Amino acid sequence: MIETEVLEMGSFATLGITDNLIDILKKQGVIVPTPIQTQAIPEIFKGRDIIGKSQTGTGKTLAYLLPVLQRIHIEKTNVEVLILTPTRELSKQVFDVLKPFAEMQGIDAADVIGGRTIENQIQKLKRNPHVIIGTPGRLLDHVRRRTLDLSHVKFVILDE
C-alpha cells in the first residue's frame, strides 16, 4: 500500500509524464507533484498494482490518470481503461478531471452512470471509447445488455 509521507518532491517530467500533459497541468496551476503522485506514478508505469491512500484533495485522481492515459493505444477502438466509482458524483468529478487530458491525447471517454438515459449511454458506448468511468450498477446493466464489452480492458481502477 502506498501511503503519503514526506518525500523529496521532483517534477512531473522526472516521473515520466509527457510534455503535453505537463502543459495542461501548468495551465491548471499544478506544477509540483504531490507525495501520492510521486509514489504512485512510477509504480503504475512499471505495471504494478497499487493501493493508494491519501487525504482528499491531495491529487489521487491525477496520480492514476496521468500514467494510465499515456499507456492508451488511441489507434485501437476498444475500452482499455475502466474506472469504477461508488457514486455518480464521484464519476462526474473524475470525468471532469480526465476531460482536458483526454482531449489533448485524442482519447475518447464516456461516463456511464445512473440518472441518465440508457439510450444516450448506448450511443456513447457504440463509439467504443478508450476510457469508461461509471458506477457498478449502471456498468453491470450495460454488460448484461451486451452494450459494453470489457474484454480488452487493460487497467481497472477502483476509486474510493
Walk me through this protein's architecture.
By secondary structure, the chain is an alpha/beta fold. Helices cover 42% and strands 12% of the residues. The chain contains 6 helices and 6 strands, in the order βααβαβαβαβαβ. The strands form 2 sheets. It has a 4-stranded parallel β-sheet, sandwiched between helices. α5 links the parallel β4 and β5 (131-134). α2 (35-45) packs parallel to α3 (60-70) and α3 (60-70) runs parallel beside α4 (88-105). The radius of gyration is 16 Å and the shape is globular.
The count of helical stretches stands at 6
Structural class: alpha/beta
The dominant shape is globular
Instruction: Write out the strand line-up for the largest beta sheet, numbering strands in chain order.
Output: 4-5-3-6
The mean pLDDT is 91
Largest sheet: 4 strands, parallel
Q: In total, how many beta strands? A: 6
| Termini Cα gap | 14 Å
- Rg over CA atoms: 16 Å
Q: Would you list the SSEs in sequence order as H and E?
A: EHHEHEHEHEHE
Helix content: 40-55%
Which stretches are poorly predicted, pLDDT < 50 over at least 5 residues? 2-9
**Strand percentage, roughly?**
5-15%
